[in-house]
Write a structure and sequence with these properties.
Blueprint: E1 2-8, E2 11-17, H1 24-27, E3 31-37, H2 42-65, E4 77-78, H3 83-96, H4 100-115, H5 118-123, H6 129-141
Helix pairs in contact: 2-3, 2-4, 4-6
Length: about 160
Amino acid sequence: MILASGEINGIGFWLIDTTSNEFPMIENKDLLECHRKELIGEESASDILFAINFNFNNLINDLQKDGFNINKPPKGISFNLPLDVIEDIFDFWIDTYKNKNLWQTAIGLLKIKKRVSLTSIIKSKAIKNHVKELANIIEKLHSYRPITREKYENKDPMWK
């Protein structure tokens, strides 16, 4: 599983994907830099990729509801999202997958997050202990907001 940056026709993007190639930059000519590479079994990688994509879909939907315009790149995830946000989401789901109980709980919370903010559930004391901690983490993974609400222009890739 990889987290990489790439470019197609001058438009930067982040890519989180599975690969069987030890050198993903050779396999995919659109990639410019690999930021994370994890050796994971095929089924596990598929599960983790599902959770990561679900998390990004929730985040982008939240951003759009809040009036932010995040451009859709030709591939992968918008380069408008900062690398630290991408890495936090990637790392969280990779680490959480190692504990099946936490994984199932986190996936359930992610599905709830799609419909409602977890903040109200956390404040209502409806959840406790490790579930509350996970809910806070998942809420934090969805907390990124750009500085300005104006139309958020596509950033130029750092390699230009």
